[in-house]
Amino acid sequence: MQILFETGLTVSQYIEQRAWEKAKLDHCPFHPEGGCGLAKHGTYFRKFPEYCLIARWYCLKAHQSISLLPDFFACQFPGTLNEIEEVVNTAENGKSLEQTAAELRPEITLASALRWLRRRIKHVFEILTTVKGMIGLKYPPILKLWRRQYATKKLLQQLRIQVAGHLHAFPPILGLAPRPESRYFTKPPSNNQWGLS
């Protein structure tokens, strides 16, 4: 299980300050009343974009580990929310997905680069669609429109704060314990909808 660790830090600051050593879990999310043998359980590492550690606990009664995921990281996906957002923003403003994929990932084959890019587009599209349904927004789930509406280039981090009470029901990258991906799959917009034909 993952719980959001609101650090207010960048990846570099998190590493420099060794913020995982200051992480605290006040109570067990499975047994808030206590008495379950909750104990520190070391750390695990995230190696992208930089190697850093994530604090972890273990509940003896639930036989579950609990980690505090820093607020800038994507959940169950490599990288940070801001990096993923910038990739999707680049795709929306590019001439085609093929060209964008080739420019962003020149070290791999075009087919692999397209898969890499489409996964990120799909996740962001699903998040915007879910938030749209929750708060009743009328504009489509297109990142540049939302960035303009929220006046931010860090939309995903802002949305994570806005829907904090629902993160354990949210789709991948934003949510903390998402259900299987297939239950959330929604077809992302085509190239033509983005003007990327």
Structure in words:
This protein is of the alpha+beta class and 197 residues long. The protein folds into 2 domains: 2-70, no CATH class; 81-194, no CATH class. Helix content is 37%, strand content 14%. It has 7 helices and 4 strands; from the N terminus they run E-H-E-E-E-H-H-H-H-H-H. The protein has helices at 11-16, 81-93, 97-104, 110-135, 143-150, 155-162, 191-194; strands at 2-5, 39-46, 52-59, 64-70. Strands 1-4-3-2 form a 4-stranded mixed beta sheet. Strand 2 (39-46) and strand 3 (52-59) form a beta hairpin. The N and C termini lie far apart (41 Å).
Strand order of the largest sheet: 1-4-3-2
**Count of helical segments?**
7
* Tally of strands: 4
Rounded to an integer in angstroms, the radius of gyration calculated over CA atoms is 18 Å
Major sheet summary line: 4 strands, mixed
End-to-end C-alpha gap: 41 Å
Beta strand %: 5-15%
The 3D shape can be described as globular
Percentage of residues in helical conformation: 25-40%
Q: Which ranges are low-confidence, i.e. pLDDT below 50, for 5 or more consecutive residues?
A: 181-185
| Class of secondary structure makeup | alpha+beta
Instruction: Give the integer mean of the pLDDT values.
Output: 88
The helix/strand series, from N terminus to C terminus, equals: EHEEEHHHHHH
The total number of structural domains is 2
